[in-house]
Amino acid sequence: MQEEIWMVIMKRLNLLIMLLILFIGQAEAKDVFKPYELWPDTDGLHINAHGGGVLSHGGLYYWYGEFKDRGSKANYGIACYSSKDLYNWKNCGIVLKVGSRGSEIEKGCVMERPKVIYNSKTKKFVMWFHLELKGRGYDAARTGVAISDKATGPFKYIKSYRPVAGHWPVDLDKDKRQALSKAEFAAITAGKEHWQLGKTEYLLQRDFTEGQMARDMTLFVDDDGKAYHISASEENQTLHICQLSDDYLSFTGRYSRVLIGQSNEAPAICKYKGKYYMLSSGCTGWAANEARSAMAKNILGPWKPLGNPCRGVNPHNKLGPEKTFGAQSTYILPVSGKDGAFIAMFDIWRPSNQRDSRYLWLPAIIEDGRLIVQWQDQWDLSWFDGDKSGKDSK
Q1: Secondary structure (3-state) at 85
Q2: Most buried by CB count within 10 Å: which residue of 85, 107, 150, 287?
Q3: CB count in 10 Å sphere of residue 97
């Protein structure tokens, strides 16, 4: 009898907790961005979608990111959240789960920086992400692709690539199109670390047959529907911009090397008035460094460096542009219905507890042909209304 009474009490208590969570979620509906602070979803839990990107489709926004526990390994998969207004996000669950033992995406691998784009021809949602195989550290340097009929998944993992195997970049001189075996590469570069190779093509030539390295990455769909995969390659020395096939599931072989030898990672791209703008970071692992920006008239380049785009100071950690407010870029989101309005998405990484890594979403505009990212303690989308030039932190 006592057990039955206890069961009734527990059921009612659980019901009260669920109602309380629902009430709190409704009562605390957000209408502002608060960079650096905890960002609860509609269930009251800190959003877990790190290194992510956002897809706008069918009147909703979908935020895809790495679902983290304390470490950097993938123990669950890729998470998705949906929103109507960009402030309030509903947890849609794990949309690409880690695979069974022996799979390329088995538990304990590394799945980073997922981005999803929609193919209007095939009516499919396509996800790409940086993949490192379990137990191999960061030497695999692959990129994986998955597909779904719905934005909220489930996504089906297809395969991984070392991109553009057997293809030379469009901008490489013909006299440098000579593949190197691993033995030849070792002989030429003996005693030198990869960062000492400067702007040579040795790494490109070494990886010609197997395929080029692909680490930090993003995706971009141009106005003509062509999609591009942008990733840190050549031991993170050079970015590769690779055109995807019409179904977005593989590579055409057409690509370029940009910002050669300048050691960029964490690329993010937007387009405004016919020009392309890139946000990226230096290569210092989880530690913050000074952000970079660049501009091109053609997505394949050439790209012109424009310097640090950041303005202002993060009062939470007292860091300004020299450390990108303590964060690293992951995506540039065009705001639907607002011309020239972008949100620069950053992560503040916390290596000892990755799940607690924070998000910095900041307003970004193109001003005098440059990308400008402005720190704000608190802001909303009305920031983009009226005269945006010279705006300071609130």
Answers
A1: coil
A2: 107
A3: 18
